[in-house]
Every structure is written in structure tokens, then in C-alpha cells.
Amino acid sequence: SGVEGPLKRQLIVEQAEMLLKALPGLPAEQRNGLLGLAETNCADVLWGEIDVWFGRSIIALANVRIALGKRDEAMSLLQDNMRVLKKLDEAIRESGTDPAESPYAGARALLGSINVQEADILLDTDARRGNEALQCFERAFNEYSNVWSVIVKMSRKDALAAEREGKGVVPASYKTPERQKPFSDIDAELAWFSERAQNSLSGLQDAAIQEKTRDLLRRLAGLREEIRAYPKEAGVTPTSDVSLDKNSRPHRLAEKGLKLLASAEQRKADAIELYASALQNYYGVFANYPGSDWSATAGERVDFLKEKLKELTGKEVLIEAKDSTKQKIAAVTLREGHNFFSRKEYHKAIEKYMDGLADCPEGPEAIVALSNLMECYAALKDELRLKVSAEYVGERFSSVPEAAQALLRVGRIFFEAKNREMYKYVYEVYLRRFPGHDSAPVILYMLGEQQWAAEDYEGAREYYNRIIEQYPKTTYYLKALNRIGWSHYLRKEYEKAAEIFRRYEQQSVPGPDKAQAKLCMADSLRQTGKFTDALANYEELIKWLSQKESPFATSKEELAKNQEILEQALFFQAYCLSRIDQPQDRADANRDAAIGLFRKFVEEHPQSPLSPLAISSMGAVLMAAGRSEEAAEAYRDLAARYPNSEAGQNARFAMIRSLLDIGHDAKAAAVFADMTREADKYPPEQFLKLGQLFLDKENWDSAQSAFEKALARARSASPTPDNAKTLADIEQRALIGLGRARYASGQYERAAEALNDLITKFPRSGLFYEARFLLGRAYKELKRTAEAKEILKDVFARAADRHLIDKATLELAAIQEATGETGEALASYQRIVLLGNVSDAESRAAYEAALVGSIPLFIQAEKWEDALRNCSIYISMFPKGEHIAKVMSWKSRATQGMSSTKPASPSPAAPGSQSEAAPPAQARAGDKSEN
User: Fold this and answer.
1) Which of 21, 301, 386, 875 could form a disulfide with 377 if both were Cys (CB 3.0 to 4.6 A apart)?
2) Is the pLDDT of residue 899 over 90?
3) pLDDT tens, position by position, 229-258
């Protein structure tokens, strides 16, 4: 109170603007109340002088109309006042006031916004357009009804006048065609409206829209019937209030609704016109009103609309800037942002950067500003805006090295914060947009090393492969090649490992890494049974490392590492010789040579951890050759020389393992039979180890026998406080081993017995999940599917780990598929696909299995589009997956199906500096023979 003049007008308008800002999230009743207050405020100001506050009240009132869903009224309000606002704008400029204060800019920006909304609706779905059209038709109907009400009111008044004038008879002057025209015009308009609305809406399938259409047509028919029945003898005085033509408001509203239901081609043309008009308005604000409340948004919309028009027309939209002053304004604004950034006032810095970049997105300071802007978002943990900014920098400045450095700095921030998701995202933007930058192979190798450190060898291999394909002439090429070889080796993909290590050997220079690769290549050949090829590689490696001045070592550390490699090569040289039995006439000589090499190894390397194994292997070779006494002497020597080694303490176990290693399963079984006859002499742990050994060698009968002995020995032992836990652990492991051996040999009923025994006696066992998964599979084979599902319920109820849930889901899907519940099986598989979790190797494996399980079921159901989408996801994510050939075949089948069948409904889509993390220690070659 007490405030008058311009200040009062300012306060009233600013209050209206604040009321509009408070609308989001409010319930309808409160929202409508605030809109009413805002409208009242605006009306108060509009009755005053033509000043800035008049202009801002026009904009606020137009926003009220938009909030009420009356865009056409908002548009009319703005267009009717644009001349006044333009004159106000000129007066502001002439007075020397900052043009940023002009409400003309806000009006143009709001017109642009309405244009965009109208255009968006024209290109929207049938349902959205149908509902919008119905709203226009409803308002048109109301307007026609209002006109009819005015005609009725006026005609009744005229009829009374005619009756008085003609003394009960309507004079001829009242019966002219002009006086009948309002009646005929509204009837013709309603006929046109009714026919066009019915024709336009009839093609829409939405039930709710059809019901509303029928209601509208009923009311139109009723109004037309009322008009026909109305007495028209005295006519009506023709005035603007009762005149109807193509420019009248109800006709324009009806036309607007009809445009929303026009052909796709016509709607596209109308949308292009609206987008172009919006672009003109936004660019006018962007170019002529720097620093205004609307310029930042206008700049963004200009870019958006240029892209939108390019998308719709296929032509580039070029706009030449005319206002050179915006460069100066932008430079000042960006410098202010730098100051805030240096003081770590990130919110204020962002505001200044956004203002400056909106006015001049490609000025001299733009890249520095964008770099700092991304760091602001990183500091504030605003990851969404940071992602948008990173993509923008990468796309817009892909040829500028400074932009690449900006992304690298932001990636480093997240790397040091151990935010794996974000540093991977930023680095991937960098790699995609700057593939030729010097640091690209460095970043790829570092990302690979991160996956390697997490033991996700398959995930790491993807990064290393990108180095091989894109950067073959960099120093990281051989490093990546070596890592790829190791990734296959550690995953026991020995054939692939041998091939990669061969490539590495051919291209690398002498050194410990080359020697290690040679060892792994030889071991990979050995693991695949190619003993002759493996022997040749071991012998070549021995020559490399036995030279007096070997180029393979230049330091004490390298010498020590090479010594370990040499010992493994010497041991496996003998091992391979013992396994080469072709040609037959060389078999005995090879065995004798192997025995000699094993002896020599022990003599020359008595402290090597492989020496006990060498004696054990030699004993096995002697026994296989029928030299039992010498073999027995070897095992006595083993126990005497290495009493603390596992082999020395368990000579019989060592003998069996060595016999199995050299392929003499029958002799191993005979030694094991001797042990079982004297079972009381051996602790249960020995039989447990033997059971696992036989299990690894897929000797199911011997494995079952060993586990049964371990179980019997553990159960017959007297538990004490000292051994009770150990005995319980042995019993559990023996039962799970029995379950595995019996399941593998097809004894599903007996496997289920052992596993049920484990689950019942040890409900909180550490083998809880493994036992239930295996029991579920046994029940599936026995066709006891209800029990299989019940067992998996236990897993779902207790598991919190994503990997366990995925595994249980796959097991459930397999059971459902086996019992013909294909819909349920497909839902189970797709549950994993929907989650799209591929963050580590185990998750990727489950995701891959779910895709492979889903695709044939989609094909079976003739859901071709879903099948194709899942095929595409697989091909994209697993281009070298083991099922790729099968998936390509399925894709071909689904493509054929699509050509003759209506597409199915869509299913969800798939979802994605130098090394800071040292890789794990190199695994030792020879793992297979030592287990």
C-alpha cells in the first residue's frame, strides 16, 4: 500500500511472473487459483500506460493462456500487440536503455515457443493429434453456440419490433435476404463443420476419441435442428456479432482442428512453416537482445530448430549473424565465468558460461569455457548435464585438439574419483570424436587395464582389439596383442591363445615378455594335446634362455623372471616327450628321454617348486612303462627329498595325478583301487582331493567312488571340538562332488539324493546356491519340474547378488522351455535383457545367454520384429561371440518372416593417460598339470 506509478506496476507484474513460476507440481485447484491471481494482476497493468511493464504483462498473460491450454488465445494476444511492443522497443533503444530490457524480445521468444508446440503436435501420434483436434472442435462448437445465442437474442428483439411496426404482420422490410443471411450462414457453417469433423475423425482408432466424436456430432446435429426449427420470418439485423465467414473465430478454430487431422504430407509442410517461423523469432531474440532473460534459451532453440528443419527438409539452414557486438558481450561474460570458476563458485560460473556461450557458441573463448563448464558439472556431480556438454564438445569441435584435451581433463577427474561409469563415458566420447588424437591408444589401453584388473578379460579384450584394429603402428599395439593372448589363455581358450601368442612372438623383440609369450604359446599347444608342436616351442625357448649373453634379460629382475620361465620350459619339455607315443617305434625312446630329463631337472633345479612334480611325473612314466620297482623307488625318493611338499606327503595321490596327466587312466584306476582296499590308512581329505581330480578328468565312476569314500571316512570319524568343523566341511564337499559326478554320468535320481542330503543336513552351507542350481537341473532331467521350480524359489528368496539372480533366472527359463511354457520362458530371458546389465564378465555371459535363449522363442512365436531386434543387439554386443553364426542364421529367418507377416510389437533395446592400474601378476604356464 502507498506505492504508486511505475514501481507499483513493476511489483504487480513481477508478482504475476512469480505466480507463474510456482505452478509446476501444484494440484489443479491451487494451480487454477494462482493463474486467476496472475491474470488479475496483468489486467490491472494493461489499463495503464504503454511501458516495459505493459509489455511484460502481455507476456505473462499469454503464459497464463498457455497454462490454461489456450495456445490460440495466447497467440492472438501476442500478435494483436506486436506493433505496440515493437514501437516500445524502438523507444527503449532511442532512450539509450539496454535493449535486453525490451519485452519485445520476450514476446518473440514466446511466439517461437508456441510455433514449436503447434508444429510438434502436427507431427505427433494419432491419439495426441486426435485429442488436440477434439479440443479445437469443442471450442469451435462453443463459439458457434455463442454466435447462435446472439442471433436468437437479436432476432427476438427484431421480431418484437416488427410486430409493433406491422401491427401483428411482419413488414416486407424485415424479410430481405440480408436479414436471413445470418441464419443461412450459421447453418452452412455447421453443415460444413459437421461433415469435415466426422470425415477427419473417423479414421482414428482410439475408442475414447470415437466416443467423444459421436457426442460432438450429436450436439452439432441438435444445434442444427434447433436452427432449422427456429422462426426466422422477421430475420435478424446483420452485424459483425452474427456474421460468419472463413475469417471468423469459430471457423478458424475448426480449421485448426482439421489441420491436425490432415494428410501426413500436408501436416509436415505446415510443421516446417511453423518451425521456420519459430526459428525466425528465436534468432531475432538471440541476435538482437544479448543478455536478455530470453537470449540463452533462444540460442539453444536456434540450434535445435536448424537441426529439426534439416531433418525434415534434408537441407542445411544457414543464418548469417548481423550483430557483431555479441562477440564483445560474450567475451566479457565468459571472463566473468572464468573468475567465478577460479574461486570454485561453480553455480555462478555455470550461469555466466551458459550466457556467454549462448550468445557466441564458437567464439575464441568457447572451448576454454566449455572445458571449465564440464569441470563445474563434475564438481557439482551433475552427471546428466556433463554428459550433454561432453557430447556437444565432441561433436561441435571434433577437429580442435584443445577440445580433446578438455575431455581428457574431465575424464581424469572421474578416474581419480574412481567413478568408473563416468570416466568410461567421457573417454568413449573422446575416442569416438577424436580417434586421431595422440592419446587415443593410451586411453584405450588404460580402459582395457581397468577391466583386466577386475578380471573381466572378455571386456578388456574389446579395448585391446580396438588398439589392434585402429592403432597398429603405436607402441601399444604389441602390449594389446600380448594382453589379448593372455585373456584367451586365462579363459582356457587355448587354440585362440596359441594363435595370438604366435603373432606376438613374430613381431616382438627379445625380452622377458617375449619369453613369457613363447611359454604360454607352448603351454596352449600342450593343453590342446599338440605335444609335438608344444615340444618344439619349449625346446626353442630353452635355447633362447640358455645363452650366456642372452638378449632376453638385461637386469637382475629379468634374469630371475627368465629363470622361472626356463624351469617351466624344461619341466614341460620332459612332460611332452612322455606323452608323444607316435610313431610307435619311438614311444619307448621318448619315455626314456623323458625320464632322463625329469632326473636331470631335479638334479639341476632341486629348489624349484616343480621338482616334486618332476619326480612324481617320472614315477608315473616308469609305472606306465611297467618298471614298477623303479617307480616305487621314485615315490620313496619323493617323500624323502620333499617331505613338506603336497606330492611328498601324498605319494599315492601324486602317483595317480601323474598317471592321469600322462594319459594312463587304467593304471591310475588300479592305484586308486589299491587305496580303496586300504581306505582306513588314508584321511578323508585324500579321497576328497582324488574325487575332485577324477571329476576334473571327467572320470565319473572313480570320482563317485572317491567322494563316497571321503563321505564314509568323514562320517565314521569321531568329531571333537578341534576337527568338527573340518569334518563337516569334508562331508559337504563330498556330497556336492557326488551330486556333480552322478549328474554328469546321467544318474539324476542318485544325484538328487546326495544334493537333498546336503541341503537338509546343512541348510546354511556355503554351497547353498551351487547345490540348489544342480538339484534344480537334476529335477529338470527327471521331469520333476514343480520341484525344480520350488528349489529355485529358495534362490530367488535369499539371493541379493545380481549374478546369482541372473543364473537362477536362466535356470528357470530352461525349465519353463523344457515343459513347453514358452511364453514364461521368454519372459524370464527378457527379464535379463531388459535390465541390460553388462558391467562385468559374468553379467555379460548371462546377458548373452538370455539373448540366445530369447531369439528362437520369438521366431517360434513369429514375433519377427522382436527376433530381429534381439539379433541386432547380439551382433552389436558380441560380434565375435560363440553363437554369432547361429544368430546370423536366425536373423535371416526373421527377416524372411518380416517380409510376409505384420510386424510384432517392439521389445526393449539393449542397452555399454597411461594405465593407472597394474595388471595382475602373470599366471604361470602349466596350470593344468599342477591341479
Assistant:
1) 386
2) no
3) 999 888 899 888 888 888 888 999 999 999
Matching residue, cell 450429436: 218
Cα dihedral 196/198/201/204 (nearest 10): -140
- Cβ neighbors of 675 (< 8 A, separation 6 or more) are 652, 656, 682, 686, 687, 690
Q: How far apart, in Å, are the Cα atoms of 317 and each of 38, 115, 120, 311, 767?
A: 39, 18, 19, 10, 66
- pLDDT (mean) for 774-782: 92
Task: Please say whether the beta carbons of 704 and 670 come within 8 A.
Answer: no
- CA-CA distance, 449 to 435, in Å (whole number)? 19
d(CA 273, CA 115): 9
Q: Can you spell out the DSSP letters for 227-247?
A: HHHS--TT-----GGG---TT
**What crossing angle do the helices spanning 651-661 and 611-624 adopt, rounded to 10°?**
70
Question: DSSP letter string over 398-443?
Answer: TT-HHHHHHHHHHHHHHHHTT-HHHHHHHHHHHHHH-TTSTTHHHH
Q: Which three cell numbers stand for residue 720?
A: 571333537
Range of 353-357, 364-368, 777-781 with top mean pLDDT: 777-781
Give per-residue burial for 248-273: e unless 16+ CB within 10 Å, then b.
bbbbebbebbbbbbbeeeebbebbbe
How many helices (H) does the chain have, and how many strands (E)? 42, 0
User: Mean pLDDT over all residues of the chain?
Assistant: 87
Residue 289 confidence (pLDDT): 78
| Among the listed residues 91, 2, 93, the one whose alpha carbon sits nearest the alpha carbon of residue 54 | 91
Cβ 855 vs Cβ 887: under 8 Å: yes
**How far, CA to CA in Å, does 708 sit from each of 603, 679, 689?**
40, 11, 12
Decide if pLDDT at 634 tops 90. Answer: no
Burial class (CB in 10 A: 0-12, 13-18, 19+), 840: middle
Model pLDDT for residues 161-210, shown as the tens digit of each residue: 888 888 778 888 888 999 999 999 999 999 999 999 888 888 888 888 88
How far is residue 348's CA from residue 364's CA, in Å, rounded to a whole number?
21
> How many CA atoms does the CB half-sphere of 839 hold within 13 Å?
6
| pLDDT single digits (tens) 348-358 | 999 989 988 88
CA-to-CA distance for 128 and 131, rounded, in angstroms?
5
Tens digit of each residue's pLDDT (9 = 90 or more) over 89-114: 999 888 888 888 889 999 999 999 99
608 Rama sector, left if φ>0, alpha if ψ -120 to 50, beta otherwise: beta
What is the distance between the terminal CA atoms of the chain, rounded to a whole angstrom? 92
The C-alpha atoms of residue 521 and residue 516 are separated, in whole angstroms, by 9
pTM to 2 decimals? 0.50
